[in-house]
Amino acid sequence: MMDSHSSFPGSQGLHHILFAMFFFFYLVTLMGNVVIIVIICVEKCLQSPIYFFLGHLSALEILVTTIIIPMMLWGLLLPEMQTVSLSTWTTEFVLLGVMAVDRYVAVCNPLRYNIIMNSSTCIWVVIVSWVFGFLSEIWLVYATFQFTFCKSNSLDHFYCDRGQLLKLSCDNTLFTEFILFLMAIFNLIGSSIPTIVSYTYIISTILKIPSASGWRKAFSTCASLFTCVIIGYSSCLFLYVKPKQTQGLEYNKVFPLLVSVLTPFLNPFLFTLWNDKVKEAL
């Protein structure tokens, strides 16, 4: 843990307004994702691979928001005593990529869907996603804290942003920044390639469906996931895929808010309002 001072500028009154807003987002995020997990567990109509992945995505959203938002709320009330914690989003992008491939198989190759997306495959994919995300973040933490920090231990942020940490180091961080840049490229681009390819084929297939009902059914299972992919990837692409990790630090509060607050808040609505099966289960 490190201290964080003045993560959000403004008066104490503004901090109270922000506290109320983020607390509301946090409660809705928790309740919405818990509801999704519960209905996936109890409803037989949702016992399919895509909802199995969605359940893990909801669990991950709860984990990410619980790591970041309570600390941020504490800092808004008592900024002089705020601490910051680490966060991870790697697993989320892997799961989004897997869900995109699942939708590709369902829409473009439905007759082989049950063979390709069998239970053992789904379980192994989820295990690999969680382990890969955990190991990626552990390596980042290890690499960052090999440096000597002889400056202030205060970060101008609401979570442990690695660009801010590197800025506080007295050592030469160029090589580590380059490695982190390569890892960001590998994680984001590596998981986005199957996503882009899958949605290219999905859109092409949907446009060939003659009936409006068939088009709507196919679209309802993909639109919410595609929206989450756009928000998440665009935010983290701007945030992490840059050669020098200390660049653009003044913008590094806005985009983490999109990923850690807004996206988890919107996901339950996106996956229920645009998904007929989930609405029926509710």
From TrEMBL:
InterPro entries: GPCR_Rhodpsn (IPR000276), GPCR_Rhodpsn_7TM (IPR017452), Olfact_rcpt (IPR000725), Olfact_rcpt_6C-like (IPR047132). Pfam families: 7tm_4 (PF13853). The chain crosses the membrane at residues 20-42, 49-73, 93-111, 123-145, 178-202, 223-242, 254-274. GO terms for cellular component: plasma membrane. Keywords: Cell membrane, G-protein coupled receptor, Membrane, Olfaction, Receptor, Sensory transduction, Transducer, Transmembrane, Transmembrane helix. Residues 32-271 form the G-protein coupled receptors family 1 profile domain. It is a multi-pass membrane protein. The keyword Cell inner membrane does not apply. One of its GO terms (molecular function) is olfactory receptor activity. It comes from the Eukaryota. It is found in: Cell membrane. Odorant receptor. Belongs to the G-protein coupled receptor 1 family. This is Olfactory receptor. It comes from Rhinopithecus bieti (Black snub-nosed monkey).
